[in-house]
Amino acid sequence: MTEQIKTKVLIIGAGTGGYVAGIRCGQLGLEAVLVDAGDGLGGTCLNVGCIPSKAIIHAANKFETVAKAADGGTLGITANKPAIDLAQTVAWKNGIVKKLNQGVSGLLKRAKVKVIKGWATFSDAKTCTVSTDEGEITISAEHVILATGSEPVELPFLPFGGDVISSTEALSLDKVPNKLVVVGGGYIGLELGIAFRKLGAEVTVVEMAERILPLYDKDLTAPVTKWLEKHGVKLLLGAKAGAFEKGKLNVTTHDGEAIKLDADKVLVTVGRRPRTQGWGLENMGVAMAGPFVKIDNRCATSMKNVWAIGDLTGEPMLAHKGSAQGEVVAEIIAGHDAVFDPVTIAAVCFTEPEIVSAGLGPSDVEGRDDVITASFPLMAIGRALAIEAGDDGGFVRVIANKDDHRILGIQAVGQHVSELSNSFAQMLEMGAVLEDVAGVIHVHPTLGEAFHEATLRALGHAIHI
Ligand SMILES: Cc1cc2nc3c(=O)[nH]c(=O)nc-3n(C[C@H](O)[C@H](O)[C@H](O)COP(=O)(O)OP(=O)(O)OC[C@H]3O[C@@H](n4cnc5c(N)ncnc54)[C@H](O)[C@@H]3O)c2cc1C
Hints:
This protein is 29% helix and 27% strand. It folds into three domains: 3-59 and 86-152 and 273-333, FAD/NAD(P)-binding domain (3-Layer(bba) Sandwich); 164-270, FAD/NAD(P)-binding domain; 347-458, FAD/NAD-linked reductase, C-terminal dimerisation domain (Enolase-like, domain 1), CATH 3.30.390.30. 46% of the residues are buried. It is an alpha/beta fold. The strands form six sheets. Strands 1, 2, 3, 4, 5, 6 and 19 form a seven-stranded mixed β-sheet that branches. A five-stranded parallel β-sheet has the order 8-15-9-10-11. It has helices at residues 18-27, 43-48, 50-70, 86-110, 167-170, 187-198, 218-230, 319-333, 382-386, 421-429, 434-438, 448-458, and strands spanning 3-12, 32-36, 114-117, 119-124, 127-132, 135-146, 150-152, 164-165, 179-183, 202-207, 234-237, 240-245, 248-252, 258-262, 265-268, 272-274, 288-289, 292-293, 306-308, 347-349, 354-359, 371-377, 395-401, 407-414. The site of flavin-adenine dinucleotide (FAD) has 36 residues, from strand 2, helix 2, helix 3, strand 4 and helix 8.
């Protein structure tokens, strides 16, 4: 017989959106059931996204440092040529993922959230059936939070399988491919492509647009392009990938020439799409906004007491956005007056060098003469030089209103600048003016001094330039 459960809140998906919603529900005393089909809690981010990719990037950086030391020496350090056993690296990465899976499980337990492993299928807006290893469970709820996340987009002429891989398989390879072709020059493809280049693979990036990372402005992406060129990553821009046959990827170049690229692996990273199929969304009567579930600023869908958060609800598809939405929805269900209305959701590309963007960028203020834009180069920052982060063209840039000096946007490119992202977001969220940042005594020597100096420069009195 099918087991029946009734609950106050039912959450589908234990990614960074769903599990945070669950914990917050528990903290607020709401009875909650969380359903996820995955082997480990934490969804894409913990299992096959943010965390494993940053672990592999970290390992690649370590390998590159030793390789440089072996290749003539660096900073007076010499070493023997390093070797990589990627299977061991992946095992180390899996250990981190497991630790986090267990951590999330413990947090949910402490919050008294009932976790059910299985695939949920909705028959109506408030009822689903979950197929578990032990049989079917029917769950009905007063409130439903949809957090089913996203999945990699597959190209019809380049389906995943064999040597055509998505980011998921790229994070669990047992050896470094000799020749890797990355199709798609967005942040996921470049983060992984750069890591594999550092690990010794020959890497080619095939991108349909005329530039990499098309969502970021050219000044921000130029240092990344420079790194790719300097490190022998072949960039085929304005190029279209075709089928992969007998170890060769068909590509039509910018000039219309048909070429074939040798590849051991073809990593397809042409975007992610919301996971809207295969779980009865069509039976729930919720309105859509293009491919995404439509929500308002409370994360409410068009169906009463059905809420949606995370990648399912649109761009930016970032872990921290889903978590913030999850907290808001739990609070609304608990009767609090909450809305999801951030000033900014900062985004970071963990490329080489890293890119941070928060708030308005140059294209958002193009043609406006009521704004000030000022940049400060990392090469004028002592800390950047001391940690070899000063010579790759990195900078911090601020955009502010001319009249009241309210900061509208902050961007940076450079090694380790991801660590500045929260201070950018805090300033924007708190409505800071240039003088607020300029008036803070920034610790020396740190990269944050470049942010300080950029605001001073916008005010016309930078010190170190
Ligand atoms: C390689 C890579 C690197 C990334 N790096 C970053 C980064 O550095 N920073 C960042 O902010 N973001 C990053 N992201 C994006 C980030 O992973 C996502 O934005 C985030 O995971 C979305 O969270 P979510 O809760 O919406 O959904 P997901 O994490 O996708 O979780 C959804 C969960 O729902 C489950 N599910 C779906 N449908 C059902 C069903 N019917 N029944 C049961 N379970 C179901 C799935 O199994 C999954 O576990 C990266 C993504 C990738 C792929």
